[in-house]
Amino acid sequence: MKSKYFSEFLGTAFLFCTVVGSGIMGQNLSSNDSLTLLANTLATVFALYFLITIFGDHSSHFNPVVSMVMLVRKEITTQVCTVFIILQISGAILGVMLANYIFELDPVLFSEKPRSGTHLFVSEILATFGLLMVILFVIEGKGGCNGGSYMGQLIGLLPRLPLPIRRERSADPFPIPLPEFPPMIFYTFVWPKL
Questions:
Q1: Mean pLDDT throughout 156-160?
Q2: Residue 52 covered by a domain
Q3: Less packed terminus of the chain by CB within 10 Å, N or C?
Q4: Number of domains in the chain
Q5: Is-contact 189 145, C-beta < 8 A?
């Protein structure tokens, strides 16, 4: 059980350090918000992939809502869920402080940007719901897929990530072009069965 607790703390710390650090680095490298967002997104995607790969055998919730859902599903006890949440919050705080320190900022900073509004609340709910859908989909093994098969979807969608940057300069009538569908289908449904 100690390895699960350690994995939850360390994984959450690394995740937050990566997310905050890549945001700081993106802002330092470019004043273009789209490039900053792209750098942050790519760093987060790859950090999650590696963290889940490394800590997946022990635990890889890294999010109190995920732990609470696992409690409701009776996959963990109330005591384990409580410890996970405390460790996740502690790991998140440490990760943010480390990212700030790495980029020569004060370890504890307070945001000067107001972050309020119904639109932000709704976006957080939707993002959390999407996260839970993916996790539960993988756990249940829907469609005969395993978690690794979703790398095919990532591979198929990678060329589309810069779309917000290009949107101003080009007319793109299709949200996802046809050439990207075959690799997505192959790596999602065929490759795992080989």
A1: 44
A2: yes
A3: C
A4: 1
A5: yes
Helix (H) or strand (E) holding 169: none
142-149's contacts with Cβ under 8 Å and 24+ in sequence apart are 143/189, 144/189, 144/192, 144/193, 145/188, 145/189, 145/192, 146/192, 147/52, 148/192, 149/187, 149/188, 149/189, 149/191, 149/192
- Where is pLDDT greater, at 118 or 94? 94
Evaluate whether residue 34 is within a structural domain: yes
For residue 154, tell me if it sits in a domain: no
Q: CB of 98 within 8 A of CB of 20?
A: no
Evaluate whether 189 touches 143 at the Cβ level (below 8 Å). yes
d(CA 131, CA 70): 13
pLDDT surpassing 50 at residue 31 = yes
In a domain, residue 36? The reply is yes
Q: Per-residue pLDDT for 177 more than 50?
A: no
Residue-wise pLDDT tens digits, 101-132: 999 999 998 878 777 888 878 887 887 787 77
Average pLDDT across the chain, whole number = 75
pLDDT of residue 103: 92
| Domain interval for residue 55 | 1-110
Distances (CA, A) of 24 to 88, 91, 97, 124: 22, 19, 12, 21
